[in-house]
Every structure is written in structure tokens, then in C-alpha cells.
Design a protein that fits this description.
The complex is a heterotetramer, with one copy of chain A (about 750 residues), two copies of chain B (about 80 residues) and one copy of chain C (about 220 residues).
Chain A (H helix, E strand, L loop, with lengths): L5 H6 L14 H11 L5 H10 L2 H4 L4 H9 L7 E3 L6 E6 L2 E9 L1 H6 L1 H18 L3 E11 L5 H21 L3 E8 L8 E11 L14 E6 L34 H16 L5 E4 L4 H12 L3 E5 L12 H6 L5 E6 L1 H13 L4 E8 L4 E5 L2 E6 L1 H5 L15 H6 L13 H13 L7 H4 L10 E3 L6 E4 L7 E7 L2 H6 L1 H18 L3 E10 L6 H21 L3 E7 L3 E2 L2 E2 L3 E10 L16 E5 L10 H7 L11 H16 L5 E4 L4 H13 L3 E3 L7 H6 L6 E5 L1 H13 L4 E7 L3 E4 L3 E4 H16 L1
Parallel strand pairs in A: 4-5, 9-12, 17-18, 24-27
Antiparallel strand pairs in A: 1-2, 2-3, 3-6, 4-6, 7-10, 7-11, 8-10, 9-11, 12-13, 14-15, 15-16, 16-21, 17-21, 19-20, 22-25, 22-26, 23-25, 24-26, 27-28
Helix pairs in contact in A: 5-19, 7-8, 7-9, 8-9, 9-12, 15-25, 18-19, 18-21
Chain B lengths: L1 E9 L6 H12 L5 E14 L5 H15 L5 E8 L1
Antiparallel strand pairs in B: 1-2, 1-3
Chain C lengths: L3 E6 L6 H11 L2 E6 L10 E4 L19 H11 L4 E4 L1 H8 L6 E3 L7 E9 L15 E8 L3 E3 L2 H9 L3 E5 L11 E5 L5 E4 L18 H13 L1
The chains are: A alpha+beta (about 750), B alpha+beta (about 80), C alpha/beta (about 220).
The complex binds adenosine-5'-diphosphate and magnesium ion.
The site of adenosine-5'-diphosphate has 19 residues of chain A, from α5, β3, β17 and β18.
């Protein structure tokens, strides 16, 4: 096999290179030539092509994502902001947490089990890289229609993969989402969130500083994984036979990752690294160029020292490989022996593959010859930036005009119709119990899980002594975003924020995963621009900064994009997890209150979707000031011990919220719908900014006074009582019947 | 009555963590000289009727559609009387 | 001096932190034992915790069985050292032949995590004396390969000798023969349990605190001895 | 270089839920006449040195001590050059 060295490249300027097959545009290729002052070697071309891909360079989204920084609310909580592997948030008492959500959509469609498993593995390494111990995961998921044959292939595999990897790592799964919609049929969304904890002083950064320091690659050996997504390699023109077609499917090994986590934490505790980076997308290309570019500026790597699983790999392939469970650390020479000793103790393969330099160049050597010699910033941080054209699509007005009014979509009105509608909704795949999924996840491991699914937010204890804890929720509503991406993104944030507050935690910071169709479609790009603008504006108003996230484009089948789906994760802090508020009703006789205002808002609602297959009109109104007040009430109510239960009102409206509170506790409720409101609207409207709470009689006045003082509407809607949800003057359904309806759906579909 | 035996193995280039774990364990147990271990699945399927070409064809189909995940696995099929 | 209870960490052990916490909450001192060490550091009892030792590749517990620490442990257990194997620990005890039978793939073919009701069938073992015979408890259960199997003769023997320590109630979550959730050796010192008592020791993080009884049982025995 | 192939199957009296699931799925896919499916494991082990009796003996040992759990499983060993 001929190796395309720098010297050879300089001498053969006219060689035709397969840049287009590698996904580079002609002008991008020309820019690489201009940067280098010659044609790139095949290894350099491989590096630039993966690092300048949409996935790694954020070239289409960058100009929009900037708003998260520019509009960031003032806060002292942010210890590390956007730009690192994950943001770090101060939660007090010397503790910090880091959290982030990422997508693994396409791989999970191709090979559901491994795609989802490696998605979990990747986000966990991002959290570990910050110096934190990963402590919990969550999994926001979207699939095609629940009864579609391909969903029966994808969903069980994805769930088994997330469980298979997360359970084996010993990370409790504390929440997530399972949503079904037509548009996700060929494009399931598999997003994974991880949260980790650390002490303030333990933060690690991805930078290679200090010339002479060693670059250590450790963890799994490098194989051909993840290469060949485009099936043509940079080296093709240089090797007559062409490289063997490499597998693009990455296979995860959670056992290796678990050992890697413990090994890393021991290394961190002994203070043995200057900088550290996980190997994720773009593998070594990414890790070396990012480390060098953020540090002293240069690095020398001897590529043939990389331990290989497959000895036939070419240098280009080694640079591009996305083999899982690998890390790259920068270590002072004096500490290297101790570093390697700890790796040995955990049976982790560790190899010194290079050293930090101050040359400003990333130089990669292969069997004594230089195959890469580039300024690392141009690879890692100075990739192309696109201002993609975007435009509000023509049909948007018609869509919004098609409101689900009573004369357009018939509504149930008699008690019998309302009862039947309720049972139908409860059993609908989007609202039905997700136990079939979540019972495959370990929620107990590590012994700090205070709340987990189906609670509004997952909550873990951070400090056993003081009871300090964090709560997390993720939300996203593609239908709302389709109707109005600006408001839809804000609604997603508001819902996650409300969920965290409902658990009793004070919302502090935000992560997001922006799942969209092709950025080359101006209509999709408009959705993206509107969603990011809406999210950034809302974060500013709610006072919660975005700390990091991920963008996933090209989620589309042919011309049809998925519903625009920004998934928003909110993290909150609670001083004592003992004060958490669960969602299930407390003792009989307690008062049930509805906080917030109900309007006739059924655009994009679950009712319109389930009963009429309809999507049109406007999503519910966003009132961020109200959301903030509501959160204050929920947090204060928890802190002062006024609440025995709280549950936010969202998909499926008040009806679904009450059903879920009954199911969670096994207790019924007698409910009086407020006067002067249409019973159907009262039960099924999806107005935002609302929550149902249960309070002991003795606290009722204190609680309602608190609401009144903040000008937040509150109405007494019933009492916890009996074993049925009894909507006075309308209908009654026993908790047992509700449970049967809710729990039968997923097992019937997935076995 | 005929028997179909289907062996399903991960493609050679795909990571096999199970095989690796077994290889490590064999080494620790003192079995020297083991250079590679791959772990796969074996299906023994009993089918009514003769062990003929038709069965072989059906067996091939069973393996290709259900027993093996062709994204990451290869299979071989044998029909025995 | 508080009793010292060892908790073994294999590569891939997960619930070792939980087991140590349970030991502590029961009033004993947890002692971390490492799979590569032969020494048991003179502990008074040992917990083999849950998790996926060696990834649970090959068979659950099959590779951990050959760890250096297990050589010492098997000898000590034969000599009467109380040992509790939880989940993966139970699997390791079976693979090591300290307990009969084996644990196989759940009949549902899925990993299952649920709050499980159990009946304590034998309240005379080293690890169950804090319970009443027949007492019903709820503790978490989480496993992919928890279906207990043994031949009929062995099962009859276990029943006859009162070595079925706990049985599943309401739902058999994994297809275990005769709803067996846990068994013991003839002496009642070595107990294997599929469900996780160490996850039911605090009201805030577990469904109950029923699990604490397993750890206080062994303590009573050690202090009494 | 020699290859050892070890097939490990559950003993006939042990319930095999995986095999049953496969049998059910084959029936649903329209493959008729399947009377029984058993799913086991196959190990392909590459060992330095000749494919001789000594290797066969060692292979037998690997299988008996590690690869199969004799409480519930049977195995067969083949050595190929
Ligand atoms: N939607 C987003 N919102 C905020 N930050 C984002 C978003 N998408 C990406 N980022 C940030 O951009 C940086 C680069 O992301 P990425 O390359 O995906 O990191 P990694 O490779 O570590 O996963 C990270 O700091 C990430 O948090
Ligand atoms: Mg990263």
C-alpha cells in the first residue's frame, strides 16, 4: 500500500482527490489547499472531511447557536459554558454537575440495538471527560406510528440497546420520552442525556497544554468502526485495489466503558492529567486536533503506535475510525508512570502516542514519514460557516389557519362521550403507560435515585450527608413546533422547566438536542432559525442558560422532514431531596387544586391527533412570566412542606394529568370542573403554565394565598377520594379501569 | 424429520466483546496460544419433512430474514437428515 | 468493634456501592475487597454484589468465578464464612458450585426492573434471621438472567431441606422454577438472592426498607457468635 | 495455526425461551413444519500450533471448565487444521 506523505503531496499537486465523495464541496476543498499551500495528503483530506462535516463542524447551525451565548441570562451558576464537551453548573456546597443531551438517530435506524447503545456510551464519555462521575441517564425517543411494522423492529431494539448499555454501566435511567408520529417512521430520534457530578476543583478541560507533555490514548483498541459511511475513502485514488469496505456500524462494549470510567476517575483523583478528551465522532482526528487547538497549539503523533484491533487499517482509516470506548489524555512525563499503572490495575490498554509541541502544527507520523502537517485550529475550530438561506414556507399560514375549532372538529359533549374520549386518550400510544419500555431500565443502581419515571422529573441525590440533589426533565413537542417553531421551542423549554419545578427543584440550566430535517431546505432552516431564536429568548426570560447541546440535521425521508423537534433538558437543584414532591396523590381527603389558566387551546393537541388525526392551528400561548411564577409557587410549596403531590399539565390536558396522579398513587379523586368552562375544554385543552397539586386541608389556605399574592389563578377542583376518578355530573372511571387502559397498549404492540 | 443447523457469527470486522472477554479469561486460566476467540450463535431447528433442496432453500431464508442480522452478522446453513 | 463485612468489586460490579451502604446502615463496617487480591482481609462475612462482572459475557458470573479473590472465598465459605450473593453475586455462587443450579435468561427475554414482593421461606439462615418465617417483603428486582433452574431432584432436595430462602409472590418475573428467588447452602451460611435488598434500605431511594433485614441478620449472628 | 470450534447447547430438559421465541417468530413468518428450535452458542477459537490430540484435549478442558456450564449445558468440540 502506498502512503501519501506530505512530501509526496507537495510533489504531486495535480492528483485528483475524492473530496466530493467524502462530503466536501469544491470551495471547501480549495480552502484546504489554500490553508496548506499544497494539496492535502489523503490523511489530511480524511481529517478535514470528517471535521468539516455538518455533524462535527456545526457549519449550518453555528450562526444560530451563537444566540445561546449572546442572549445568555446573567448567572453565577455557570462554571463552564458552551464549547466544551459539556457545560458545568454550580449547585452549591462545593458541588457541580455537568449534563448534556446528544442524538444518535441515524445509527439507531440502521442497527437499533447498537445504534442506541453507542449513543448512550458516547454521551457518558462526554460527561466523564469533564472530570465528573456519570450518575444517571435519560432517553428522549421518537418513533413512527406505534403499529407500523418498522416501529416493531426499531423500538424494541433501541430500548434493549439503551438498557443493555446503561444497565451494564451501572447508571440509573431516571427519565425520558417515548413519542410516536408518522414523520419519525424512517427517522427515529434516539437522544440520550447523561448527568455527572463533581467537586468544583475537579473540572477537566479538553486541551493539550505544556510542550513536552505526553499524549496517551487509552481504552479499547482501534478497529474499522464507523468508517465508510460514504464508503469511499480518502486513500482510494492511491491504492489500486481500494481499501476493503469497512463496517460503518459501531458496536459498543459497555463493560469496557464501565472499566474505563472507574479507571478515569481514579486517574482524576490522583490529579494525573493536564487535559482530556473522549473519542467520539471523527475519532482521533477530532481528539488530536481539538486538544492541540485548545492548548499550546501543536502536537506530534506517531500513528503507528495506536493499538489496532484490525492490523490492516490504513492511516486514513485510523484517523477516521469511530471505535467506541476510547479516551485521549495529556499527561506530564513525570506522572506518566503512575497513569499507566492505574490503567494496568484496571486492565485498560494505554499507549503514549505522541507529545504536545509549541510548533502550532499537528504533525502525524506513520512509519517514520509525515502524513499530516496542519494547523490544528483550521481542522477543529475554523471550519466552514454557512449562512444558509431560510424562509417561512408558503403553507405555514394555511396550516395555522386550520384551527381545531368546534365546528371544524366535532367535540365530545355528553358524559358518555367524554368518558369514552378519556379512555381512548389514556390508551393512545403517546399517553399510555411506558412501563414496557422503562421496566427494561435499571433505576435503582447507585442507590441515589429519589425520583424516576413516570415522575415529572428524575431526581438524584448528590450528597448523602446533606441531601443536596438535582432534578432533570426533557421535553419536546414536534407538533407544537410544526405549527410555530418559535413558540414550540419555548413550550418545550417551559414544559421541562415546569416539570423540574413540580418535583420541588429550582430550575438552573438548560441543554438541548435540536433534531431537524435538511438544512439545505430553506423551510427546514426557517424552522431551525425560529426554534433556536425562541429557545434563546425564552432561556433569557426564564433566567436559565444553555450550557451545551447537540444538533442533528438531515432527519428526513426523501423530501419529507420530521416534525421539527427541539428536545430541551432542564436541570434543577434541590437543597434536600427529602423535600421532593412526588406526582401521585397523597392521603385521602386532601384538596386537589388546579394552578394556572385554562383556555380553549387544542391546536397540535393530543386529542386532535388521536381522535381526528389533525394537525393545524396555533399551539398553546406561551407566557413565560407565568411559568416563572408557577415554578416559584411549586418550589416554595415543596420547600415549606405545603404540597403532598404536584403534577404538571401538558399532553392530554387536565384529564390526563389527573389520570396519571390516580395511577401513580392507586387512589381516586372526586373532581368538580370549574363553572362556566366547557367540560371538554376543561379536560382536554393543553394550555401551558398549569399544574395540579394536592395539599393537606390544613395547608390549603396558605397555599392559595401564596398563589393569589403572585396573581396566579388557582381553583379548588376536588379531593383525593375513593378508588375512581369521579368527574362530578359527568362520569366516573375506576382507577382499575384506567390502569387496564393505560397499561395494555404497549405490551399489546411490542409483546 | 430433518434438522437444520444455522451458525451465526459476527462479521470478522465487527467488534466482538464477548469473544474478547472469553479470550481474556482463557489466558488467565492458563490456556496459552489462543490468538482469537469469536462467539456466535447456533440454532438447531427440527422441521417435518425431508432434508431436501427445498428445505435448504427455506433454511437459507429463515437465516437471512430472522436468525441473522445481516448488518453485523454472517451465517452458514446445514441441512441434516 | 463493629463487624467487618467485605464487599467484592469485580470489573463490571455495579451495586458494590449500594451493598457497602447497606452494610453501613446496618451498623457494620464495609471492607472493599478487590477481585485481583487473594486476601479477604479477615472480614467476618462477604457480600458478592450485583452488576455485570466481566460484562456478563459468556454467562453471568462465569468469568468472575475464576478471579483470584474467589479462590480464597470459596475455601472460606466452605469453612462457614457467611456469604450473600445478590443477583450477579448469586450467579457467581452458582458458577462456583457453592450453590446448586444455575440462572438462565428470563423467560420474557427482557431485562426487568420492578418492585417485587417476596416471601421469606427460611428465616433461619445467616442472612434472614431478622425476618419472621413467611414474612412478606418488597424489594427491587432487576435482572436479565434471573431464571433459576436446577433438575427436579435438586429442587426437591432444596425444598425438603428448607433451602429455598425466598420465593416470588404475585408475579414470577423471570420464569424461575418453583418461583424461587433465593436459596442457601445446607449450613444456611451461603445465600444467593436474585432480588436486591441493598436497594431497599432507605425510604427515600427504595420502595421499602425491607432489605435492611438481610444485613442486620448477619450482624446479629456475628455479634452473637 | 489451528481452529477449535465449540458448540454449547442447553441440555434438552432445560427450557429454552430464546429457542421458543424463534420458533414462534418462524411460524408467524410463514415457515411451516418447524417442530422445535434450540438456540445455543458457538465459539471459534484460533490457537497457535498444530491441530493435534494435545490441542483436542486442551479444547475439551476449555469447554468443560469455562465455555459450558455443565449444570445446564452440553458441548461438543471439534479441532480443525
Ligand atoms: N443545540 C446546541 N445548543 C448548545 N450548544 C450546542 C448545541 N449543539 C452543540 N452545542 C455545543 O457545541 C459544542 C460542540 O459539540 P460537539 O462537537 O457535539 O461536542 P462533542 O463532540 O463533545 O459531543 C459542545 O460544547 C456542544 O455543547
Ligand atoms: Mg466530546
Amino acid at each position: 500500500m502506498t502512503v501519501d506523505t506530505v512530501a509526496h503531496a507537495a510533489a504531486t499537486p495535480d492528483v485528483v482527490q475524492p473530496f466530493a465523495e467524502l462530503g466536501l464541496k469544491p470551495d471547501e476543498y480549495e480552502r484546504i489547499r489554500a490553508i496548506l499551500g499544497r494539496r492535502p495528503t489523503s490523511s489530511e483530506l480524511a481529517m478535514y472531511s470528517v471535521m468539516w462535516s455538518e455533524h462535527c463542524s456545526y457549519k449550518s447551525s453555528k450562526v444560530h447557536l451563537r444566540q445561546f451565548g449572546e442572549k445568555a441570562p446573567k448567572t453565577d451558576a455557570l462554571l463552564v459554558g458552551i464549547g466544551e464537551n459539556a457545560g458545568v453548573v454550580d449547585i452549591g456546597q462545593g458541588w457541580a454537575v455537568t449534563f448534556k443531551v446528544e442524538s444518535h438517530n441515524h445509527p439507531s435506524y440502521v442497527e437499533p440495538y447498537q445504534g442506541a447503545a453507542t449513543g448512550v456510551g458516547g454521551i457518558v464519555r462526554d460527561i466523564l471527560t469533564m472530570g465528573a462521575r456519570p450518575v444517571a441517564v435519560m432517553d428522549p425517543l421518537r418513533f413512527g406510528p406505534a403499529d407500523a411494522p418498522d416501529t416493531r423492529r426499531v423500538l424494541p431494539g433501541v430500548v434493549a440497546g439503551i438498557g443493555g448499555y446503561g444497565n451494564c454501566l451501572g447508571l440509573p435511567n431516571i427519565g425520558g420520552e417515548v413519542v410516536f408520529d408518522e414523520t419519525y417512521l424512517g427517522n427515529p430520534l434516539v437522544n440520550a442525556l447523561c448527568v455527572g457530578t463533581l467537586r468544583h476543583g475537579d473540572i477537566k478541560l479538553a486541551k493539550a497544554s505544556g510542550p513536552g507533555n505526553l499524549v496517551v490514548l487509552f481504552g479499547a483498541k482501534t478497529g474499522g468502526d464507523g468508517i465508510g459511511g460514504v464508503s469511499v475513502l480518502a486513500s482510494e485514488t492511491f491504492d489500486a485495489d481500494g481499501p476493503a469496505k469497512r463496517p460503518s456500524v459501531q458496536v459498543g462494549d459497555p463493560f469496557t466503558e464501565k472499566v474505563l470510567i472507574e479507571c478515569c476517575l481514579e486517574i482524576f483523583a490522583a490529579d494525573l492529567v493536564v487535559g482530556i478528551q473522549d473519542l467520539g465522532g471523527a475519532g482521533l482526528s477530532c481528539a488530536t486536533s481539538e486538544l492541540a487547538s485548545a492548548g499550546s497549539g501543536g502536537m506530534h503523533v506517531v500513528l503507528d503506535r495506536v493499538p489496532l484491533r484490525d492490523p490492516t487499517l490504513s492511516p486514513e482509516e485510523i484517523l477516521m475510525s469511530e471505535s467506541q470506548e476510547r479516551m485521549c489524555a495529556v499527561v506530564e512525563p513525570a506522572k506518566a508512570a503512575r497513569f499507566l499503572e492505574i490503567c494496568e490495575r484496571w486492565d485498560v490498554t494505554a499507549t503514549v502516542v505522541g507529545e504536545v509541541t509549541d510548533t502550532g502544527r499537528l504533525v502525524v507520523e506513520w512509519h517514520g514519514e509525515v502524513v499530516v502537517d496542519v494547523p490544528p485550529r483550521t481542522v477543529a475550530h475554523e471550519g466552514p460557516v454557512y449562512h444558509r438561506p431560510f424562509a417561512r414556507p408558503g403553507g405555514q399560514d394555511d396550516l395555522q389557519a386550520d384551527a381545531p375549532t368546534a365546528d371544524r372538529l366535532p367535540r365530545p359533549s355528553t358524559p358518555d362521550e367524554l368518558r369514552a374520549t378519556l379512555l381512548r386518550m389514556v390508551a393512545a400510544p403517546n399517553l399510555a403507560a411506558k412501563t414496557w419500555v422503562t421496566s427494561q431500565y435499571d433505576r435503582y443502581v447507585r442507590g441515589n435515585t429519589v425520583l424516576a419515571q413516570p415522575e415529572d422529573a428524575g431526581m438524584v441525590r448528590v450528597d448523602e450527608e446533606t441531601g443536596l440533589g438535582v432534578a432533570l426533565a426533557t421535553d419536546g413537542n414536534g407538533r407544537h413546533c410544526r405549527l410555530d417553531p418559535y413558540a414550540g421551542a419555548q413550550l418545550a423549554l417551559a414544559e421541562a422547566y415546569r416539570n423540574v419545578a413540580a418535583s420541588g427543584a429550582r430550575p438552573l440550566a438548560v441543554t438541548n438536542c435540536l433534531n431537524f430535517g435538511s438544512p439545505e431546505d430553506p423551510a427546514v432552516m426557517w424552522q431551525f432559525a425560529e426554534a433556536t431564536r425562541g429557545l434563546a429568548d425564552a432561556c433569557l426570560e426564564l433566567g436559565v442558560p444553555v450550557t451545551g447541546g447537540n444538533v442533528s440535521f438531515y432527519n428526513q425521508t426523501g423530501e419529507v422532514a420530521i416534525l421539527p423537534t427541539p428536545v430541551v433538558g432542564v436541570l434543577g437543584v434541590i437543597d434536600d431531596v427529602d423535600r421532593r414532591t412526588p406526582m401521585g396523590f397523597g392521603p385521602e381527603g386532601e384538596t386537589v387544586l388546579l394552578v394556572g389558566e385554562t383556555r380553549d387551546e387544542l391546536g397540535g393537541s393530543e386529542w386532535a391527533h388521536v381522535v381526528h388525526g389533525h394537525l393545524g392551528g396555533l399551539p398553546p400561548v406561551v407566557d413565560l412570566r407565568r411559568e416563572r411564577q408557577l415554578a416559584e409557587i411549586l418550589v416554595a410549596g415543596s420547600r415549606d412542606g405545603m404540597l403532598t403531590a404536584a403534577h404538571d399539565v401538558s399532553d392530554g390536558g387536565l384529564a390526563q394529568a389527573l389520570v396519571e396522579m390516580c395511577l401513580r398513587s392507586g387512589r381516586g379523586a372526586r373532581v368538580f370542573l370549574p363553572d362556566g368552562v366547557d367540560p371538554f375544554v376543561a379536560l382536554f385543552s393543553e394550555s401551558a403554565g398549569r399544574a395540579v397539586v394536592a395539599v393537606p386541608r390544613s395547608e390549603e389556605l396558605r397555599f392559595t394565598d401564596m398563589c393569589v399574592a403572585r396573581h396566579v389563578p388557582v381553583v379548588r377542583i376536588g379531593v383525593v377520594d375513593g378508588d375512581a376518578l369521579d368527574v362530578q355530573e359527568q362520569f366516573s372511571v375506576t382507577v382499575e379501569e384506567l390502569r387496564a387502559a393505560s397499561e395494555a397498549t404497549l405490551p399489546a404492540l411490542f409483546g | 424429520m430433518a434438522r437444520v443447523v444455522v451458525d451465526v457469527m459476527l462479521k470478522p470486522e465487527i467488534l466482538d466483546p464477548q469473544g474478547q472477554a472469553v479470550q481474556g479469561a482463557l489466558a488467565r486460566l492458563g490456556f496459552g496460544g489462543v490468538t482469537s476467540v469469536r462467539q456466535g450463535k447456533r440454532f438447531e431447528i427440527d422441521v417435518a419433512g425431508p432434508a431436501d433442496d427445498d428445505l435448504a432453500a427455506r433454511a437459507e431464508q429463515m437465516a437471512g430474514t430472522l436468525l441473522a442480522n445481516l448488518v453485523i452478522e454472517d451465517f452458514t446453513v446445514r441441512v441434516e437428515p | 468493634m463493629a463487624a467487618r463485612i467485605g464487599v467484592v468489586t469485580f470489573p463490571g460490579s455495579l451495586d458494590d456501592v449500594d451493598a457497602a451502604r447497606a452494610v453501613r446502615l446496618a451498623g457494620a463496617e464495609p471492607v472493599a475487597l478487590w477481585h485481583k487480591d487473594r486476601t479477604l482481609q479477615g472480614v467476618d462475612a462477604v457480600v458478592l454484589p450485583g452488576g455485570f462482572s466481566y460484562g456478563d459475557y459468556l454467562r453471568c458470573g462465569a468469568i468472575a468465578r475464576f478471579a483470584p479473590v474467589m479462590e480464597s472465598l470459596v475455601d472460606a465459605a466452605r469453612g462457614g464464612l457467611p456469604v450473600l450473593g445478590i443477583c450477579n453475586g448469586f450467579q457467581i455462587l452458582c458458577e462456583s458450585h457453592l450453590l446448586p443450579g444455575a440462572l438462565t435468561r428470563n423467560d420474557s427475554l427482557h431485562f426487568v426492573c420492578r418492585d417485587q414482593r417476596l416471601r421469606i421461606e427460611n428465616a433461619a439462615t445467616a442472612w434472614t434471621s431478622a425476618f419472621q418465617p413467611g414474612q412478606e417483603i418488597v424489594v427491587p428486582l432487576k435482572n436479565g438472567e434471573g431464571s433459576y433452574v436446577a433438575d427436579e431432584r435438586t429442587l426437591d432436595e432444596l425444598e425438603a431441606e428448607g433451602r429455598v430462602v425466598a420465593r416470588y409472590l404475585d408475579v414470577n418475573p423471570n420464569g424461575s422454577r418453583r418461583d424461587i428467588a433465593g436459596i442457601s447452602n445446607a449450613a444456611g451460611t451461603v445465600v444467593g438472592l436474585m432480588p436486591h435488598p441493598e436497594h431497599a434500605v432507605e425510604p427515600l431511594t427504595g420502595p421499602t426498607t425491607d432489605g435492611l433485614g438481610f444485613f442486620t441478620s448477619v450482624l446479629t449472628r456475628l455479634v452473637g457468635a
